[in-house]
Specification:
The chain is mainly alpha-helical. About 45% of the residues lie in helices and about 10% in strands.
Length: about 180
């Protein structure tokens, strides 16, 4: 039975203001788009790298963008939907215009995107590694936002994060009171 790691320290929620310098300083549009998607969706970097043009449903009438993400660790993560007014959605929409159906959006390796984020961290935060962000930290930040601000249940978090194992639920459920007290009600 797998053991799931839930960090002992509190994850702070990264705001759009904290992400803005990363988006502004990134030279490549694909880096801007993948950071924006990681922050908005909370998806794993490996899941973002699999995205194709048809994974995005753009509703011009309602001014909404829906992202269909398939988790590498099982099934669909979900269908996060964002308003065109949400931060950084225009960056994603602009990036999507370059692609036809069936085309992968991100063609570089996971390591390459991590190195680009490393360079941005050096530019923005310097050597203070405690202040750096990673794609995994963006994921946890979004999950924390869903738990605290949107008051999601552990089952909803399990669905959102793409965890399909019953072991995950068995691990989180008893700790709901102990570790997540007040964050889900």
């Amino acid at each position: 039975m797998p053991k799931y790691y839930i960090p002992k320290h509190e994850f702070r929620i990264i705001t759009s203001e904290e992400i803005k310098p990363y988006i502004e300083k990134a030279e490549k549009e694909e880096v801007k788009a993948i950071i924006a998607l990681a922050w908005l969706t909370g998806a794993r970097i490996s899941d973002l790298l699999k995205l194709k043009r048809e994974n995005f449903l753009v509703d011009e009438e309602r001014k909404m963008l829906t992202v269909v993400i398939h988790a590498s660790k099982g099934g669909s993560v979900g269908f996060p939907t964002f308003s065109f007014e949400d931060p950084f959605v225009p960056i994603i929409l602009q990036y999507l215009q370059k692609f036809d159906r069936g085309q992968k959006l991100f063609r570089k390796t996971k390591r390459w995107y991590q190195q680009e984020l490393f360079k941005l961290n050096m530019q923005i935060k310097g050597n203070n590694q405690n202040e750096w962000i990673t794609f995994h930290y963006l994921r946890h930040s979004r999950i924390t936002y869903i738990a605290r601000v949107l008051k999601a249940t552990p089952e909803e978090i399990k669905s959102f994060t793409g965890h399909r194992s019953s072991a995950y639920e068995e691990y989180v459920a008893p700790r709901r009171v102990e570790r997540f007290a007040g964050k889900f009600q």
